[in-house]
Amino acid sequence: MDESSYWSRVQRIFNMMDIRTAFVTSAQVDAALDLLEQHEQGGEISAEKLDRARKIKEAVIHPDTGEKIFLPLRLSFIIPCNLVLDTLMLSARGFSQNVGAQWLNQTYNCLHYYANRNASNAESMEKIFQAYLGATASSVGAAVGLNALLDRAPQGRPWTRLARKLIPFCAVAAADVLNLGITRRDEFLQGIKVYDEKGEEVGESRRAGAMAVSACILARVSAAAPVLLLPPLVMHRLERTRFFLRHSYLKTPALMGMIALSIQAGVPLSFGIFKQKASVDVASLEPSLWNCRVSEVYYNKGL
User: Fold this and answer.
1) How far is the C-alpha of 60 from the C-alpha of 200, rounded, in Å?
2) Which residues pair with 192 in a beta bridge?
3) Rounded Cα gap, residues 167 and 260, in angstroms
């Protein structure tokens, strides 16, 4: 996979988000893997078939485990899942709707993060459950707490209505930090495997694990910003226009359309900031790795 430039990484994530790859059958995945193996052994495969096989592998196969990622948790299925969840969060009104929307979103996020993690370390169900509880509690607490705070604001202030539209992003950002931090804490507490450019294991590094988790947190928060900030801010202006006052039933479809576009554009642009196969100088890692046979090592950042 080409990750040499920012735009090549953006294109790679964009291709991974192609919803058609979410529905490939197990037989099609196996056929793609066989095709790639034939190519590595010197077989002549057309460029079109080779690109298609690589696209399927990157979208479906976990880079560490080599196993197929469950369909709803693949990156290629992120638009339909998040379209529903983000619409629910941005449309939530009142205590029960806010709690329900945040709970559903964090349930999906926890499963998605785990499915696309760096799999150097096995995660126990206890740790996964702790991450799930922590993320759900933080997102629900942020959403309910900020809404309660705005309820105490002086009545009639125009900024309160706008501020409420920003609450889902604040809740999701807080939960992302806690969710990824807990789910993947073994990566910076125990370390992750690092490899040379040929893919041979060099050792394990806690510092590389911290870099991987930090990069994923930044990418996730950056990806959430355009999705949970731009559509509600635009709708805040549009819903007061004559057209939407007359056709109020179009507000939700318009919001969903903007959310879908924001996900399709925002996720590749945000995830492309960091390389999936990240590299780091050995001198920046633990002293125990300084005497290894290479000066630069690689690791799977995870998604």
Assistant:
1) 23
2) 205
3) 19
Q: Among 286, 117, 77, 101, which Cα is nearest to 213's?
A: 117
CB atoms within 10 A of CB 236: 14
119 within 8 A of 177, measured Cβ to Cβ: no
pTM of the model: 0.78
Containing H/E element for 164? helix 158-183
Residues 6 or more apart in contact with residue 220 via CB below 8 angstroms: 176, 180, 270
Q: Where are the alpha helices (DSSP H) in the chain?
A: 6-16, 26-40, 47-60, 78-91, 94-115, 125-151, 158-183, 185-189, 206-238, 242-246, 251-271
* Residue extents of the structural domains in the chain: 6-61, 72-300
The tokens describing 87, both together, are 């619409």
Q: What is the pLDDT of residues 62-116, one digit of tens each?
A: 887 888 898 889 888 988 998 999 999 988 888 899 899 989 988 898 888 788 7
The CA-based dihedral angle spanning residues 115, 22, 54, 267, taken in that order and rounded to the nearest 10 degrees: -70
